[in-house]
Amino acid sequence: MQTQAAGEQYNNPSEEMEGQSSFYAEGDGLVEEEKDVRQHLTFVLGGEEYGFDILRVQEIKGWEVPTVIPNTPDYVKGVINLRGAIVPVIDLRLRFQLEDVRYDELTVVIVVHVRVLDSHADGEEPSYNNKVVGVVVDGVSDVCNVELDNIRPAPDFRGVISSDFVTGLTTENEKMVVLLDIDHLINEGIMNQLDSMLP
C-alpha cells in the first residue's frame, strides 16, 4: 500500500473525478459502461481504515504541537498558524474515544475544507461557511478510487462513532474502509463551540 508523505498538498480540489469506463459483453461486441467514481483519502485510526472525499483535502502536515485553547474538549488540541490562517486542530482519535493515542513521527494532521453551519444566520434556510480544520490521525494510507455503486450503507455501530458521521462502507485491498461525512462530524457541536473562542 502506498504511503502519502506529510506535507503533500492536494491543490485545486474543485472538480469531482470523472466517471471511469468499463466494458461488458452484449451480443457479438463489447459495450462501454460509465461508472461514477470518487477519490477518497484513506487513513488509520486505532488500527482501522477510514476515509473521506479527497476534494476536501488541502494538505497533509506532520504533527506539531498546537497552541492550546483553554476550556475546550480534550479532542480539540488547539490551533496552528497555517500561512497566516488560524486553523483549529481536532484529534479524531480522542473524538472517537480510542485508546493508546500517541504523537510520534507517523502522526499527521490532514488539513481539510469543511462546510460549517452558521448558527448566527437569519432566515429559515440554513447558511454555511467554508472553513479550514486540521484533523489528527495515526497515519495516512493511500488515495483510492471508490465506485459509488460499491459503497454500502453504514450499519448502526452502537459505539462511539455515530452512524450519522458515516456515509458508507467500501473495500480497498481486501480491507474494510469506513467513509466519513467530514461536514457532519465537524459540525456536530465542535465548530460552534470553537467559533466563540477563536479570534
Describe the structure.
This protein has a single domain, classed as OB fold (Dihydrolipoamide Acetyltransferase, E2P). Mean pLDDT is 77; it is low at 1-5, 8-24 and 29-33. With 199 residues, the protein is mainly beta. It is 8% helix and 46% strand. The strands form three sheets. A five-stranded mixed β-sheet has the order 10-3-4-12-11, with no helix packed on it. A five-stranded mixed β-sheet has the order 5-8-9-7-6.
Question: What's the helix and strand layout?
Answer:
Blueprint (H helix, E strand, L loop, with lengths): L19 E7 L2 E7 L1 E9 L2 E6 L3 E6 L13 E7 L2 E7 H4 L12 E10 L10 E10 L1 E9 L18 E7 L2 E6 L1 H6 L3 H5 L4
Parallel strand pairs: 4-12, 7-9
Antiparallel strand pairs: 1-2, 3-4, 3-10, 5-8, 6-7, 8-9, 11-12
Task: Provide a concise account of the structure shown.
The chain contains 3 helices and 12 strands. The protein is mainly beta and 199 residues long.
